[in-house]
Amino acid sequence: MGRLSAFVAAGFPQTTSHFGDDEHGENAGFNDLEWSTVREHAAKFQPFLKAKFPRYYEEMEGIAEGAQVELLDVVALNIRSEIAGSTFLARNWKSKQKPNLIILRVKPKGVPNMELPVFQTITEAGIIEKIGFNEHGVGCLLNGILLESKTKREALEKIEAVGLAGSSHILLGDSTGPTGLDCTSIGFAEIPADDQGRVVHANNLILKHEGVFEPLWLEDSPKRTARLTELATKELGDKASFEEILELFKDEQGFPASINRRQRGNNDSNTLFNVVYDVTERKGIISMGRPTEIEEQIQIGF
């Protein structure tokens, strides 16, 4: 069997699968902020974005014009992780985001002397790109701008050159395997695959970062990381398939704050969708709804 890169956050040496249990209410970072305050924070980023990333800024201008909304609102949507400072890998969203989900196939154009890869991504209306993979087999969960890279290493070099402005977890991978990025507002550290080829994570920083204090956002995050590590065995990796990897995300230990999450009681987030990407084969399946209550499955690929 070829090396399977199922983008969900853990991997294996023979069949490199990356499994990640990442549940979060997508607007969680804004829950305690008035929108006027969010806009004030976003305005501080505008000059930097316009100077350093004119193509993306122009794309946000186009979204604002087409949607007939103010540009600052679109900017705020696209940099909300930096404003919020939360630690997350956007995989599952609160159910109220369901009407805003879109799947895009993008062919970047208009960049002088550059031939950028075609990529496919699931994102939310107003956010230019997010969770997907490209025609070269480079996959990324969270920061879709990295999908314009031809290799995982190239994507890593882009992050090193530009830096980050908030806490998050970014999972990158190509046929060479997975790499997790533990990100803070002052830098990031790479999380290499373990001795079974896995990178497993949830909504909390895994590595130590000098000078950074990151309170635990969700108390169940370490428990979900431990549970997924337990489930993502070497034996599973040896025979990994889309169906078997999806099966991991049906787990309800610790329900409702489980890998397969349910909005109930004190738990305010619900699993909205699951992705399994085989970036080596350039194929993926997006399962809408909780993995035990799939409403629709969409196949993407090249």
TrEMBL record:
Gene3D superfamilies referenced in this protein's UniProt entry, alphabetically: 1.10.10.2120, Penicillin V Acylase, Chain A
InterPro entries documented for this protein: C45_proenzyme-like, Peptidase_C45, Peptidase_C45_hydrolase
Pfam families xrefs: AAT
Residue ranges occupied by any Peptidase C45 hydrolase domain in the UniProt entry: 145-291
Transmembrane regions: none
Top-rank taxon: Eukaryota
Protein name, as recorded: Peptidase C45 hydrolase domain-containing protein
Species of provenance: Stachybotrys elegans
